[in-house]
Amino acid sequence: MTMHLILWRHAEAFDTTPDLDRRLTPKGHKQAAAVARWLSEQLPRDARIIVSPAARAQETARALTKDYETDPTIAPGAQPESVLAAAEWPATRGTVVVVGHQPTLGAVAALLLSGSAMPWSIRKGGLWWLSHRVRGEDAQVVVRAVMAADLL
Q1: For range 70-98, the mean pLDDT
Q2: How far apart are CA 99 and CA 58, in angstroms?
Q3: pLDDT tens readout for residues 96-111
């Protein structure tokens, strides 16, 4: 059984308050559109998309699809374990895209790859694509892709 988890950080947003109302900048819209084009060629049709309630995450996700779930448990400041629970890692088959925030998403990547939730960075608009698989008796986490929006 393989699960794919895509950790997609929201694109660049204006630095305003309140935090949940921050919207994407023009550059952020371009970042989100570039990553969404790439993702749309890669994702299976049945991919599940879960998104933070923050406006910047919602706008980032809408560049890809309007068919997503808003999940308040992955809002800014969420713990890595909350993201994994929302994604049902590693029990779900298929692909789950999480559109969220730093430092949470970087900590999720670090936790899955190193066993410790360290402050790894994911650039604005960028993503990490991780897979869970079992080989023999061993559960493994595989890095499938790491993408920065400015490389697309």
Answers
A1: 97
A2: 8
A3: 999 999 999 999 999 9
Which strands, in side-by-side order, build the sheet including 3-9?
Answer: 69-70, 48-51, 94-100, 3-9, 127-135, 138-147
| Cβ-proximal residues to 140 (8 Å cutoff; 6+ apart), any chain | 132, 133, 134
- 3-151 has CATH 3.30.70.270 classification: no
The number of angstroms, rounded, from the C-alpha of 70 to the middle of its chain's C-alpha atoms is: 13
Could you tell me the residue ranges of all domains in the chain? 3-151
CA distance 120 to 107: 6
* Per-residue burial over 84-115, b = 16 or more CB atoms within 10 Å of its CB, e = otherwise: bebbebbeeeebbbbbbbbbbbbbbbbbbeee
